[in-house]
Amino acid sequence: MRLLHTSDWHLGRSFHRVGMLDAQADFIGHLVTTVREHAVDAVVVSGDVYDRAVPPLGAVELFDDALHRLAELGVPTVMISGNHDSARRLGVGAGLIDRAGIHLRTEPAACGTPVVLADAHGDVAFYGLPYLEPALVKDEFAVPKPGHEAVLAAAMERVRADLAGRAGGTRSVVLAHAFVTGGEASDSERDITVGGVAAVPAGVFDGVDYVALGHLHGCQTITERVRYSGSPLAYSFSEAEHRKSMWLVDLDADGTVTAERVDCPVPRALARVRGPLERLLADPALARHEEAWVEATLTDPVRPADPMARLTERFPHTLSLVFDPERAPDDPGLSYAARLADRSDQQIAEDFVAHVRGAGPDERERDVLRDAFDAVRADDAVREVAR
Description:
This is Nuclease SbcCD subunit D. By secondary structure, the chain is an alpha/beta fold. It has eleven helices and 19 strands. It folds into three domains: 2-263, Purple Acid Phosphatase, chain A, domain 2, CATH 3.60.21.10; 270-326; 345-386.
């Protein structure tokens, strides 16, 4: 069976205030063409279909168009909700849509009930694990303490139990939206840390033939059977070096996996340039970036006059301007934001405690801080679901 694995469409998202709906529509067209030209048997979409719980009308219309075009191909599609989606909204009408071959899986309780498709070699069971927010699903999965590994492990127990009751030789595919250990994050994914831990080990998914992951925006191979497709478009300058693609996966009769990448259309190249303004304006080596979307980081010791106006004369598509004068780490002029760069909320809070009382928190106090941050994130998740 040949699968096309994609994820993280983020329909409705902008890139530094540049609307991406036209580029997203081009991607949907490319997806449909790929399905047709490569004789794909099933499409899997591993979450974050939308960029937010209440998407703009244009994004909803594009999703509707995508569903119709995929249904017209007669190729089954299995789709889960991600942490950016409203599972309830995305799952509206799932029963009716199911009849058209579009299988929406947004209910955590149904993770052990697969979509079963068949080819010449027998059945393939597709298990959809929507994004499992630990604080919201801990009761469903009867875990004593909410955490990503605990709820995913419980969900996979249901998958393996169902699979064990099926005919021998049944192959299996799991769709999941999670941060798996070994994956490389970018700046455009929403933080899903719980209990100080965001990542789960790939071993959680042992026992199935292929795991189609979503959440991280870079295309990545965790193991030969566990892969991220990444987002089809770049949504932050941290993705400037990404090659945006989908996985074309062949699942043989014995469950052997072979995979190749299918490149996605690029609306405009990304470039990050850094240095004093005058050098950026004069350096001939930067000519290749003149039509790209540009993030410029100026290192001048004193902020130049009218930097954006001057930059856009050479780089008309400059979208981001960062001022980062080169200074020693202990320079008192170093910005507060620069001093906090790459530090987690937990680390910042612990530093504050140490600053105020002269000694950092002990282990019990670290746990209290961690529980407080987790409670805030859980409240945010509940509010997002309720919207």
